[in-house]
User: Which sequence fits this backbone?
């Protein structure tokens, strides 16, 4: 199964709502099960450098079917996947990339959020991934 | 002046409406005055290869402040700008990239549409650029 | 607001003056509010590898609206933004990239300096950002 | 011999003067004998897409020690160097890239101009290459 545009829009809408509540300016990207960009939104005055990071977070999460923050633990110096970020035209491995699953638990896409602290990025992404229906 | 997210969303909404009327599956990208991605939407089952093309069309239009199809006339073999597409990490110079202007005529961004014939791509982009308010 | 060429030239002139005082050979880049290159100058016999670094420092500062050195603290192993440098076609996150603001405090561009120690790079960039009028 | 920063600045100054006389908004790049960027200037509101084109024109001219327009004749379909633009991370082979020579005729650098018609680009580049002392 693949995320629909309607679901992707809902996820972005949820992320926008959460970001506004928290007073944050976010870049938000959704990719589908094929790791291809489905929807993207940049809030007014959000960081320009976070366009690419939001997209890379969403892709990275789907590339390895895990949250970007989990991958980041493994890519530290001395760890098993050190510098995996060099693959796939660049990965982002700190928090803010979260999988989107359907009701059966199957991965149908992923969302990446960038524009604030990694904690805020992760919170907004998680909220959106849980409220896209 | 720079396009706002609200205006970019309206442009994409207009493009979606027009595409649905015509029975088309489009990728739609909006960039701001700095040629940075502001919003993107891919309709269900739209061509995957058109993600990048839609984004490049929007950027190309803003890069040179002209419709992509106009630039394409000049980049043909023997014409003044042959192979200009090799610049800027890749341009797309066939129709479907259109400028977005404010009421005073100032360029505030651009829209790129890809997913059908270049005529349809151009029609949808033009409609959206005229109906984003 | 966007930096003007006149302001960018003044910033580079200030950077050249400061560099000459310190006996340094610098590469100096200025980008506008859209992170697009506005002006660049390489002093005679300055490092060739610093052309790209100066440009990337200026872009990085504007991408995230902070000095490159601040971002670099966050991108160390174990820190929140480890390996963020893989985004945006390559970032530079050590000192030498500084924001340029107008009198109201709005960011209108950024300057990147590379060619000496990071302390000297930072000093020259800061001086220029404070003396571009 | 290599172009000095002073000479590069003079070339850009000449290009700015000529562009202003003609009412044009240009991007102007100068590279040295090693094809490395020495100086760059973008006039206010000049095309964003011409940043990269001006730099590539200057590099292309020096890469092959000929004007870009000359190379462009050879890169047309059926000609000897068809699609040479794919090399060197992208070449630009239409007019506007001109060699800068010292008084003995030795090539010391090149200038690339982009922002108007190729005729205007070429005129400004030629003027600057002849008036950099």
Assistant:
């Amino acid at each position: 199964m693949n995320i629909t545009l309607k679901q992707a829009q809902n996820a972005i809408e949820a992320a926008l709502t959460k970001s506004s509540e928290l007073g944050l300016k976010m870049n938000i990207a959704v990719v589908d099960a094929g790791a291809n960009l489905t929807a993207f939104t940049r809030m007014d005055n959000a960081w320009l450098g976070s366009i690419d990071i939001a997209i890379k977070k969403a892709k990275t999460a789907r590339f390895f079917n895990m949250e970007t923050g989990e991958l980041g633990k493994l890519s530290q110096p001395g760890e098993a996947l050190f510098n995996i970020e060099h693959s796939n035209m660049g990965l982002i491995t700190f928090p803010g990339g979260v999988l989107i699953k359907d009701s059966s638990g199957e991965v149908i896409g992923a969302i990446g959020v960038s524009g604030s602290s990694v904690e805020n990025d992760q919170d907004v992404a998680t909220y959106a991934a849980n409220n896209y229906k």
Q: What stands out?
A: The two ends of chain A are 15 Å apart (CA to CA).
